[in-house]
Amino acid sequence: MKKVSAERFHRLFYPQVAAVVTARHGDEVGSLLASSVMPTSFNPPMVAVALGKTHNTTRLVQSSNAFAVNWLSYEKVSKMEMLAQPTPPGVKDKLLMAGLSYRGGVKTNAPILSDASAFLECRVVSGREVGDHILYIGEVVDAEAVEDFEDYWRFRVYRPVLYVGSARPDWPKFVRFPLE
Fold this sequence. Notes:
7-stranded antiparallel sheet
């Protein structure tokens, strides 16, 4: 075994399925690519998302007390990569900037991506600072998936985007699952 530095421990968790976290407050729409998403309770259904303190989307989640988690298939990876970048100054709608269409969620009005293979619509139950992130716990108030999901993914249509990190400039940040 070799020592893993404290600055790199998180890379032991890769690859992870990348999800698009979205939020809206007033006329602002934010989104970011997140790999820190996980279920935290079955009853009631809850998920946790860890969002960087300085992200515009974090501010929108805080203001609206709602967010959505959207999963896109690999065919949309180039648009997803745009969401991994900071929101440029003056941009009120990051999803439109990235070329992604959406509708408002039925229960929270959080943005639901039109091309999503699945989504969760969540109401914020709590938020807590944890280092350089804020951990939001959201109660799942709606969830939908394409027909490829039958209690588990069949991977006939949905091709998850796996984030593998950005350790070296010549390596890909994302790969498609299942690998072919």
